Amino acid sequence: MTDRPNYITLAGYTVLRTEYDALLGDERPKLVDVISWAAGNGDRSENGDYIYGRKRLREIDRRLGFLARRMKAAKVIDPAAQEDRARVWFGATVTIADEEDNERVLTLVGDDETDAGAGRIGWSAPLARALRGATVGDLRRVALPAGDKEYEVIAIAYPPTPPR
């Protein structure tokens, strides 16, 4: 892991925290009980409950470690609080058009929140890096595996600012 902060929205952080709490507080203790019961049944070399349980426990512990590191590095950002709304920054919803005038709407979110099908791309993705700091009308070139592609920024939007 790098020392860079893990930018994330509050909703994304909540998802990570919920998964962590479910694994640590629910699934892991139940699995430990099953492993203890299976270990008490005698020969462990051919005991499927014991072998599978130990394997699954290692998977859960690895996932818990990963989630703990991501949450520790998390820097929760509220996109609605963005002051410079004329430029593309974290949390912006951007409408872009390619050379063939195909439009796409993308939202720049944390790397743990990505969902390409829903138009949510990670902050460190090549396209997101190219769009950072762009204003409406800017052209940005992105190096993609299929070759370079140029996009024009058509619109930039942020969530509404909460009332004070």
Automatic annotation (TrEMBL):
The lineage of its organism: Bacteria, Pseudomonadati, Pseudomonadota, Alphaproteobacteria, Sphingomonadales. This is Transcription elongation factor GreB. Pfam families: GreA_GreB (PF01272), GreA_GreB_N (PF03449). The keyword Transcription regulation applies. HAMAP family: GreA_GreB, GreB. PANTHER family: TRANSCRIPTION ELONGATION FACTOR GREA, TRANSCRIPTION ELONGATION FACTOR GREB. Belongs to the GreA/GreB family. GreB subfamily. SUPFAM superfamilies: FKBP-like, GreA transcript cleavage protein, N-terminal domain. GO terms for molecular function: translation elongation factor activity. Signal peptide: none annotated. Residues 86-158 form the Transcription elongation factor GreA/GreB C-terminal domain. Residues 6-76 form the Transcription elongation factor GreA/GreB N-terminal domain. Gene3D superfamilies: Transcription elongation factor, GreA/GreB, C-terminal domain, Transcription elongation factor, GreA/GreB, N-terminal domain. Necessary for efficient RNA polymerase transcription elongation past template-encoded arresting sites. The arresting sites in DNA have the property of trapping a certain fraction of elongating RNA polymerases that pass through, resulting in locked ternary complexes. Cleavage of the nascent transcript by cleavage factors such as GreA or GreB allows the resumption of elongation from the new 3'terminus. GreB releases sequences of up to 9 nucleotides in length. InterPro entries: GreA/GreB_C_sf (IPR036953), Tscrpt_elong_fac_GreA/B (IPR028624), Tscrpt_elong_fac_GreA/B_C (IPR001437), Tscrpt_elong_fac_GreA/B_fam (IPR023459), Tscrpt_elong_fac_GreA/B_N (IPR022691), Tscrpt_elong_fac_GreA/B_N_sf (IPR036805), Tscrpt_elong_fac_GreB (IPR006358).
